[in-house]
Amino acid sequence: MASVKSALSYASANFAESVQDLASFIRFESIGTDTKYKRQTAACAGWLAKHLKQIGLEHVQVFATKNHPVVYADWIRYPSKPTLILYGHYDVQPVEPIQEWVRAPFKPIVSGNYIYGRGASDDKGQLLAHVKALEAFLKTQRQLPVNVKCVFEGEEEMGSPNLQNFLHTHRDLLKADVAVLSDMAIMAKDKPSLTYALRGSLSVELEVRGQGVDLHSGNFGGAVHNPLQVLCELLAKLHDASGKIAIPGFYASVKDYEQQERAYMARYGPTDKEILQNARAAKGWGEEEFTAYERTTIRPSLSINGIVGGYQGQGVKSVIPSKASAKLNFRIVPNQDPYVVEKLFRQYIKKLTPATVTTHVHANLHARSYEIGVRHPVLQAGKLAYARGFGVAPVLTRIGGTIPVLSLFEEELNIPSVLLGFGLPDDRIHAPNERFYLPNFLKGIHTCIWFMAALSKYKLSAKKTGKAAVVSEP
Amino acid sequence: MASVKSALSYASANFAESVQDLASFIRFESIGTDTKYKRQTAACAGWLAKHLKQIGLEHVQVFATKNHPVVYADWIRYPSKPTLILYGHYDVQPVEPIQEWVRAPFKPIVSGNYIYGRGASDDKGQLLAHVKALEAFLKTQRQLPVNVKCVFEGEEEMGSPNLQNFLHTHRDLLKADVAVLSDMAIMAKDKPSLTYALRGSLSVELEVRGQGVDLHSGNFGGAVHNPLQVLCELLAKLHDASGKIAIPGFYASVKDYEQQERAYMARYGPTDKEILQNARAAKGWGEEEFTAYERTTIRPSLSINGIVGGYQGQGVKSVIPSKASAKLNFRIVPNQDPYVVEKLFRQYIKKLTPATVTTHVHANLHARSYEIGVRHPVLQAGKLAYARGFGVAPVLTRIGGTIPVLSLFEEELNIPSVLLGFGLPDDRIHAPNERFYLPNFLKGIHTCIWFMAALSKYKLSAKKTGKAAVVSEP
């Protein structure tokens, strides 16, 4: 306990420096999805590796992948204590629409209790909370409570396309008992929550190709089937009037949850009103028989993320584009297989495609959903850590987002993961003016300190996570 | 006749220089719709004014408007001969999608029988055919066959927003008997056509606004009505299954054409096959009871020109955009009023808008359709000019495009217009790799020479054009 106390004190006393380090981290334009930023993304990885070395981690390595590197470091001392993988990602989302940012996305600024910048919350700030917890132990004790291996990737926002191969190739190096990651929001500033389930994700691009060239809509309007029109007509058929996804067979394998689980969700989860407030939405939408919390966690969704086709500039352009495409994102739930969903989508689109055009589907992300048993010892360690770090016991929550690495850790390393989120629902992740609430950055560092301390008391060995979650009030 | 012959010879002998002048003209990035190009557009006007002065026109003036200037010049000598307005536009369409251009759009190049570049056909090449005809007369005779006033504007591609005011303000300066303009395609290389009717145009922007901020489609997918989805659902309701526009009341005032007119169109107009070949479309689409030629001329159309919303970049971005909008373009036909169409559209959208979002309609172009009586003397002069310039009599045609200036000339100056097109259907106007067929550039100059010569024999006075066109085989 003495070691924990001095680590906590160190973290508090050096918090201003931690904020400065976070600002330095945000300054890198590590937009992993856009090849234009490859060099800046690599520079970001280099900075992170150097920082890990500076705080006292060992075997620091930047592993090249086909795209953006994985930053690795470890500290291994105890044969009989658990080994913890710290996972995080240093890549960030694109910044469009850039004109809606009040400040430049990569010039972080502290204003009030927030630090603003792309990646502040997702995931640079949350990743750094763990790093700062390691620093606190190493600077005050010259040791950590458990064995630690850091795995920080640069491709999370593009669906971690090379991570599975990395984990598989280095499965001996990465042998561990449990992984921890922080890449989500808690329910509110003083209401920590421990995520035990996430939705999976399937991203597809649907392209409609019509005539061979762009046409003048004056000269040709009325004679050809505008691909942009066909695209809209197809997209309009993806949902029915009740808000359900209209793809035949889509709901066939969706898991039904027991009343006990839904009652727990209703009691401890966010209300419809809270979710709509966070979304700044006047009205909700979707399957009437489910709450907004359920619709975003235990129910699948399908979102149009963007449409490309025709003229998007200022003013008018009388064009019938030769092709048009839409970026679509499914969020899928337990028992749904992303590859089956892709197949059903392809069949449906094929059936709907009129003879005047051709359609083409390209899938670029397949991630299963994730659930961990609520009585799992690592989840108990997480609960304890939050209770100490935030001074209040966490609620067990589901979130609607996806962290593909969770199922990869399970598949490749056969270990469970625990998710310690330090973000807030209004952090505007993936949107303009992203920010991170600084008091939770410090509480996050403290929580990470407590988590390692709690974990050091468990005897763990690699085992399967309990996929069939039994929820009871903790 | 001697004067015509020497002018024709001059035009042929100096054609290489004319092509060079056209290349110089194309090099100006005169994208009038985009404020970024304001300076280049002004420079283009300056070049044109200088060129008019060099060839011997008088009273050359660059009139400022609220946006892009009007280039004016005249040559007035004969109290008893007709005065002809030469109208053209030096502004061009945007170049997106830029990556589909094989060569840079503003670095014109001659390859085979074509000159390539944005504006080569629409309208710089066709405008210059008239200028080169003036030059041929002035260099060989030191005089023109008729009085001439040049009115070259820089805002045609944005709907000529300041032209009406310009014509109204300068209606004494612009007093004339007839206008001629060349801003369209003939039917084929050796098949000239004389356009006697055009559709009108109404451009509207439809915006759907949902929640106040962009959201993560993982965290919020399923809880809010995605504005991009709503937009698609609205756009999908603009046409019915038969290809008709589904806006209630839309067809109420659409003019019915007599069998005589439709028979003439069927006999001399392009076939469905030809139109689809020009469009590089495998299959046609639209109102079954009309031919493709009819569907693009005497029937209205509604095209989606572009959709703005969500993420359009490389890769994926899990976003539910807070708003989305579509650029729409109606082409309207005789007896339809663009303001009535706008009203009907607004009513329909209002009725369809779900309670989860708000919709906003912005109209930015209202142009009526245009028809001139086929027995009108200026049309006869045009027929003669084509017959001599191309060596073959023209077919009288309708086109689906819009030249808003036609109804403005009628309303403000009370004069008819004749349309001598020199473009080809596959010039790719408004699309990547626009080009102009050089043999028709020369034939166009010759046709303009013949047109002025023919016109010099008519006694004309300002009169209303016959709006109710009686079509009979010429």
Structure description:
The structure is a homodimer of 474-residue chains. The first copy, chain A, is of the alpha+beta class and 474 residues long. Helices cover 34% and strands 21% of the residues of chain A. Chain A has 14 helices and 18 strands. In chain A, helix 1 (2-13) packs across helix 4, helix 1 (2-13) runs antiparallel to helix 14 and helix 5 runs parallel beside helix 13. Chain A is globular. Chains A and B meet through strand 10, helix 6, helix 7, helix 9 and strand 11 of A and strand 10, helix 6, helix 7, helix 9 and strand 11 of B.
Please specify the SSE layout and strand pairing.
The structure is a homodimer of 474-residue chains.
Chain A: H1 2-13, H2 15-26, H3 38-55, E1 58-63, E2 70-75, E3 83-89, E4 109-111, E5 114-116, H4 120-141, E6 147-153, H5 163-169, E7 178-181, E8 193-198, E9 200-209, E10 215-216, H6 217-220, H7 227-235, H8 259-268, H9 272-279, H10 292-295, E11 301-308, E12 319-320, E13 323-332, H11 338-352, E14 358-367, E15 370-371, H12 377-390, E16 395-399, H13 405-413, E17 417-420, E18 435-437, H14 438-455
Parallel strand pairs in A: 3-6, 3-7, 7-17, 8-16
Antiparallel strand pairs in A: 1-2, 2-6, 4-5, 5-18, 8-15, 8-17, 9-13, 9-14, 10-12, 11-13
Keywords (chains A, B): Hydrolase, Metal-binding, Protease
Organism (chains A, B): Pontibacter saemangeumensis
Protein name (chains A, B): Dipeptidase
